[in-house]
């Protein structure tokens, strides 16, 4: 009976990523599906922060998992699976950004409408906040995403992985194949860029607030 309980408990424990990867490499599709389930939200978040558009982020997420499935046999375990997956996602997004910039450079005209922030990430409302606070959070999220959209791509990938996904400098260096020193340098420059952009937003907000008071 005790042995049965122990066996049942072990079966109930979630499998490590490394175990699922080995099974996926052996052709076990269910193992890969479990990896997708574990990381699809994080991959989407990276893609959205990198690209700033919901539909494009979904496409990038699917593309990232398709590439991971295609090349899983080449994963040697030199880094964690999620670091390897984030590298794939970042590369997919950087490629899309280059394609977008190339397309925009060909189609840009003076009468082209300026894109607004309607593609900012939608969040499920938390009703413990007042409508005013909720609105303020949404406005700040839009301002943050707008600032991220303006980041040069080499800074954007570092900021997204380090600040928004919580990876360590070492993990970011592995994901992007950079030295830790390069990660720190790009992180610092990206932070300065965002701080300057958001400080302008805060200044403008304060000016509007003062006008409302008067």
Give the domain tally. Answer: 2
CATH fold topology of the largest domain:
Rna Polymerase Sigma Factor, Chain: A
CATH superfamily name of the largest domain? Answer: RNA polymerase sigma factor, region 2, helix turn helix motif
- Counting DSSP E segments of at least 2 residues, the number of strands comes to 0
The mean pLDDT is: 79
Amount of beta strand: under 5%
Count of DSSP-assigned helices: 9
What does the overall shape look like?
globular
Please state the CA-atom Rg, rounded to the nearest Å. Answer: 21 Å
Task: Look at the helices and sheets and give the structural class.
Answer: mainly alpha
Task: State the CATH class of the largest domain.
Answer: Mainly Alpha
Largest sheet: none
End-to-end span in angstroms?
Answer: 77 Å
What are the segments in which pLDDT stays under 50 over at least 5 consecutive residues? Answer: 107-129, 207-214
The run of helices and strands is: HHHHHHHHH
CATH architecture of the largest domain: Orthogonal Bundle
| Helix percentage | over 70%
């Amino acid at each position: 009976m005790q042995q049965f309980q122990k066996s049942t408990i072990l079966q109930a424990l979630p499998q490590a990523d490394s175990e699922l990867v080995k099974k996926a490499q052996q052709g076990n599709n269910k193992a890969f599906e479990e990896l997708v389930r574990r990381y699809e939200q994080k991959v989407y978040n990276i893609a959205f922060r990198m690209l700033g558009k919901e539909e494009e982020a979904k496409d990038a997420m699917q593309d990232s998992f398709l590439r991971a499935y295609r090349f899983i046999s080449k994963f040697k375990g030199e880094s964690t699976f999620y670091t390897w997956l984030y590298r794939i996602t970042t590369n997919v997004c950087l490629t899309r950004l280059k394609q977008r910039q190339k397309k925009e450079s060909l189609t840009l005209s003076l009468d082209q409408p300026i894109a607004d922030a309607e593609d900012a990430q939608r969040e499920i409302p938390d009703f413990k906040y007042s409508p005013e606070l909720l609105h303020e959070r949404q406005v700040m999220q839009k301002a943050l995403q707008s600032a991220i959209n303006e980041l040069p791509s080499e800074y954007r990938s570092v900021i997204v992985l380090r600040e928004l996904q919580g990876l360590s400098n070492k993990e970011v260096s592995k994901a992007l194949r950079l030295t830790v020193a390069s990660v720190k340098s790009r992180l610092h420059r990206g932070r300065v860029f965002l701080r300057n952009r958001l400080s302008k937003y805060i200044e403008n907000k304060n000016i509007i607030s003062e006008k409302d008071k008067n």
